[in-house]
Amino acid sequence: MSNLENKLFDKVKQNSNISPNDIQKVADSVKQANFSDEKTVRDLVKRLAKLADKPISKEKEDKIVEAITKNNMPMDMQTLNKMFKK
Fold first, then answer.
1. In a domain, 86, yes or no
2. What is the pTM assigned to this prediction?
3. What pLDDT is attached to residue 31?
4. Model confidence at 58: pLDDT above 90
5. Using a CB cutoff of 8 Å and minimum separation of 24, what contacts does 74-83 make?
6. Among 18, 24, 42, 55, which residue has the least CB neighbours within 10 Å?
7. Angle at Cα 75 formed by Cα 25 and Cα 36, nearest 5°?
8. Does some domain include residue 66?
9. Model pLDDT, residue 62
10. Is position 46 within any domain?
11. Distance CA 73, CA 66 (A)
12. Could you please report the per-residue DSSP string of 8-64?
């Protein structure tokens, strides 16, 4: 792992208490995922919320799932932050 990757993982762990191993497991599990399938996406959103120990409302979960399954997910950090803070 590069120094930049190590710093990134350290920052994620510091901010969310998610270990690099947990991140790798999630990444491996979604490599072949069908992101147009609502059940797959909903399960992933719930898994990530639980992993981050961050409760997620049904309304927010629905918005995230809809954005992903309809391939309408914003790619800039400012818009993503607004979406997740609502």
1. no
2. 0.66
3. 82
4. yes
5. none
6. 55
7. 60
8. yes
9. 94
10. yes
11. 9
12. HHHHHHHHH---HHHHHHHHHHHTT--TT-HHHHHHHHHHHHHHTT----HHHHHHH
Burial class (CB in 10 A: 0-12, 13-18, 19+), 51: middle
Mind giving me the DSSP string for 49-69? HHHTT----HHHHHHHHHHHH
Two structure tokens written together for 36? 């147009």
Three-class SS state of 76: coil
Total domains in the chain come to 1
List, in order, residues 6 or more apart from 65 with CB less than 8 Å away: 38, 41, 42, 45
Q: Which helix (H) or strand (E) holds 77?
A: helix 77-85
Instruction: Give residue-wise pLDDT tens across range 5-57.
Output: 777 777 777 777 677 788 788 878 888 888 889 999 999 889 888 888 888 99
